[in-house]
Structure formats: structure tokens, C-alpha cells
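Quick note —
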Amino acid sequence: MSRTLLRWIRVVAPALMLAVLVWRLGTGPFIHGIRTIDGGALAAAAGITALATVCSAWRWKTVARGLGIDLPLPIAVAAYYRSLFLNVTLPGGVVGDVHRGVSHGRDVRDIGRALRAVGWERFAGQVVQAVLTVVILLALPSPVRSSMPLVALGVAVALCCSVLIIKARSDGPSAWARLRRAAGRDIRDGLLARRAWLGIALASALIITCHTTTFLLAARTAGTTAPLSQLLPIAVLAMLAMVLPSVAGWGPREGVTAWAFGRSEERRVGKEC
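Predicted structure written out below.
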């Protein structure tokens, strides 16, 4: 598949999801949601987002330090804000991460290592998010709860296989052996080092908590009165959909959120009947 076709798919697919939402729901819910926003909600969301961004920058700094490259926290925070802006305004959702990796690489004269630091930092966050998502969806009722035992088993198997691959001997001059040695070295030094792994895990958990809180704040601001036990699974499902390509931050997340809200409401009405 050519790069041009992939680029078009990344733009068209999220745009199509957004178009379906507007077609099915109309513009009323979007306009009503904007009208309900007030200064207090915006201030709270800005503060929560700032905390999440600082934690993300600190996680990036920790991984970069483990890989042997310096990254001052103020520079990391500024670069992370810039990357978030690029991620939500440009198609794909990863352009900002590539930009901060390349920019940092030019500053330290090692673009390859800087890009690896960004990649492993995002990877660590996704792993923690996946584990927390599985735990929450196993514990609370949601539209996907019946599938969660199988998903949890799949996540556990994937983590075990990853550990075995990292620990396996990779002698030899082949490209695969070199790649596995490099990946294992990066994970040991950047993610699993004695002073790194706990901080990375805590920072990732705090980041996820901040994003979840922002989602719950937005839901309450929009007038949702559903209990926290119903909103929390929807929030983690929406955040999971954020890893998919989007157009200016719109697309899969909104589609998954609308679907999850609809299914949850159907379950509630069914129980009442």
C-alpha cells in the first residue's frame, strides 16, 4: 500500500466518522455542548491539562536520561505543549511527537536516539493505559464487559511474550538480532532502570487520571447526570480510541464515546423495563 494512499486513509477515515456522527445526531448536541461551557470549567480543564503535560514531559525526560541524552524539564514541557498542538491540528495524531523527537535530536546531535526516547516514552504510557483500562473495564459495567476476560488474557499474553523476546539471547549479525538487542537495551536503560520504572508508571497513571478527570468534567459540564460508575468506563474507552488517527482531534474518540453512551443508556433502560 503506497504512502499516498495511507495518508488519504488517515484523513478520510476520521472525517467520515465525524460526518456519520453529525448525520446521526445533528449539530444540536455540538452547539449545546459549546454553549454550556463556562469560565470555571475552562479554568479547571486548563489546570488539569497543565498537570498532565508536566507529568508527560517529566516521563519523557526520565526516558531520555536513561538513554543517555540530556533534556531539561522546562524545554521538555514547552516541546510537549507544541507537540500536543500539532497532534490535535494535523491529521494522524503523531506529527507533534515526531517533531519534538527530531527537534530534540538536533539539539543533542543524535536524532535517532532522541526519536527512540519519544517512541519509548509513548510506548510506556500506552502500556500503563492498557493495563488500567483492562482493570477498570473488568471491574465496572460497560458495553464491552463481556469481552474483557478474553481481552485481559490477550494483554497478559502479549506482555509475557514481550518479556521473553527481550530476555532471549540475540547473538548474531542479522538485522533482527541487532534490532532486538537495541530494543532490549533501550527498555532496560530507559524504562526498567531502578530509578526510572516506578516514576514512569506513576507519571503515566497520573496522566491517565488527569485525562479521565477532564472527560468527567466535560461530561458534567455538558449536562450528563449518569453516575461515575457509568462514566468512568466510557472515559477509558474514549481515551483508548484516541490512539487511532484523527482529523484535528476529531473522529474515533467521538465515535466511540457516542457509541458507548448509547449502549450504556440502552442497558439502563432495559434494566428499568
